[in-house]
Amino acid sequence: MNGKRIGPASLSLAFFLSLGAYGASTPAQVLHVKLQDSSTDPSIAHMHLAVDPGALKPGRVTIQAENQAKSLVHEVIVMRDPGSKALPFDAKQDRVNEARIRSLGEVSELAPGKTGKLTLNLKPGTYLLICNQPGHYKDGMTAKVTVAP
Hints:
The protein is mostly beta strands and 149 residues long. It has one helix spanning 8-25, and strands spanning 29-36, 48-52, 55-56, 59-67, 74-80, 89-90, 95-96, 103-110, 115-122, 125-130, 142-147.
């Protein structure tokens, strides 16, 4: 040994720095979301929100959304699944009333061919993803994702 001692403050600093490095190196899971409609593929009869994978572990999740449409704007709003309870729908606006839901975040207004992302910390449960452009939710642009240990 060279006779130099590491003091308690130095050890504490090294310990906390190593914890920070551990947390920073834990990558977020990625949820791929494809926003599709008949302009994406003529065989698609209704608007579609495809997710992969459909099940995740609790923790950081990055939603990578891709609007595969050729002519329509789409978005992804994330919320807890209300179960059998209907979402508050505004028939006049032909969309879900966003002021009456608890959105956890969104990738908003993606132009055709564009991508966007959102990172959230998700707890165990079921989540609902919707596109809330006028008429899109009602036409089936919704998907569920399960988060479980």
